Amino acid sequence: MILLQALSSDNNISMVLFFGTIGMLALTIGLIVFISFHQRKVIRYQQQLQRMEQDQQKTLLNASIRLQEEERQRIAADLHDDAGPLLATARLYLNENFVNLDKQTQLQSIYNAKQIIDDTIQLIRNISHSLMPPTLKNFGLESAVNDLFQKISGSGSMNASSRFHDYRERLKAENELIIFRVIQELINNILKHSNASFIHLTQNTSGNRFFIRLHHDGRGLTQADFEKLGKSNVGLGLKNIQSRLKVLQGKIFFEKDMSQTYYKVTIEMNREDDLRPANESN
Amino acid sequence: MIQIISFISSLLPIVFFILFCLKTNEKGLWVIFFYSIFSLASDFLLTSRWGSHNTFLLWNIYTIVEYSFLAYFFYITIRLRSVRVLITIISALFFIVFFIQLKSINIRFNSILSFFSQASILMLCLVYIFTSMNRNTESLNILNPLFLVVIALLLYVACTLFLFIIANKLSEDEMTRYWRSITVYNNILTNLLFSAAFLLYRFQHKNPTPESHSVDFTSPNDR
Lengths: 282, 223
Hints:
heterodimer; A: Heat Shock Protein 90; B: 8 helices
């Protein structure tokens, strides 16, 4: 109808009106189409991102479950292979008292049984300490890390040292445990794979950010390696680190030192809600 | 015939709103509801005897009231402070221009004011779309009633912008002819989109997501 009117009219104004309106309409429809396509593209992208995140969560969960199972198997093996035979032997020595009535022999067998029970107690204590280090529980992260590093240095295979610059107030107990486990995992990896001659740990804070940095001079990982391993099926320990840090909403960075001599691992987390007086934790 | 369809279409958004959105808290939809009532009332007045003698007065008043409704709609819909300040400034300018040209309100169609109004609304439609796109993709949901309202306004403004620009150059006969052919179709389209927006609101709020069932999957030992 408008077209007919525009064509039948000699008036330029009609033409301007006709083409102007059609042009505006075309632009508007074009804009609407563009928005629709853009929206679909964005939705697709978001879905993809969500899927990737779900996959990542699933991998982390699987890693955490596998690690838990491995830990249980290790404890079961320790109890079965070490504590079981020790207690059975102690039982044998004690049984001998019923058979052999010689006082001297009886005393000797009781003494042997006592020795074995002491060993078993020590063994169970070790298992218990590996589950929850008493130093960490009673004296905090700094002491637990120092303890761990002393043991490593004491072995003579590696020089391990640590320095806590700003740890006057302890983190929450559960967060300390998570960080300690992450440090343990990292140290374990360094001991197993890096062939390093020293490890140095530094702790510091900046505002409400809490940092822990590990230096070593062996073969290490870069951030790209870490992310690659995190997505693959291998690197269970690294996935475990990731899932633990996710609980703390913390981050971890793997990088090479400026001098290209050392590898650095930095753990970063927010300590805003984590502060609590040291005496509360005891 | 098309006039009757256009008139019936003007009733649609009002009826749809009363049926489906009367309990809504969405202020934007309420503004559009009152705007639809106002448009219908204006159409009635234009067809009355008094209206036919005061066409320019009615058109000019319609322009300023329509602008007020739509500017307020964007003011409450776009929640950016800068945009709200911009709307306030533009509206102030708009009313200044209106009062300057008040003398000719009953003499001729105020093309400048109408163009100013349409251009502002067009700009605000674009601002709404692009701010929504930049801010958060979820807020630019095509199936969002407010988005549909903005699309309706965008189409309405795009169709009538050139008509308003050259309205002063048209003879009364041409004005009536073009006005009728453009605004009637445009009116139908806009009203249908408004009605669709109200209907969409109803569909989206009909079945709220059920609360998660209160089945406790934890073992008695964990409770």
